[in-house]
Amino acid sequence: MSTVLEDYLNTAQAADVIGCSDAHVRYMLINKLMKGKKVSGRTWMVHRREAEKIAGTEHTVGRPRRRDQ
Length: 69
Hints:
This protein has three helices and three strands. The chain is of the alpha+beta class.
């Protein structure tokens, strides 16, 4: 049985799960692209399931393709 705190990750731990930087995790939290709780100052906590959900989605990277005319 896990405790409540074990279910939550800080931004660095969430970044490891997702595969991005902790700055990008903070960006997603601030812009409400990801759910989390701000506990003090700059410290955010993310539920492990939320990080795993974001990690499981497919993201497009780079510039959009040009439409053929």
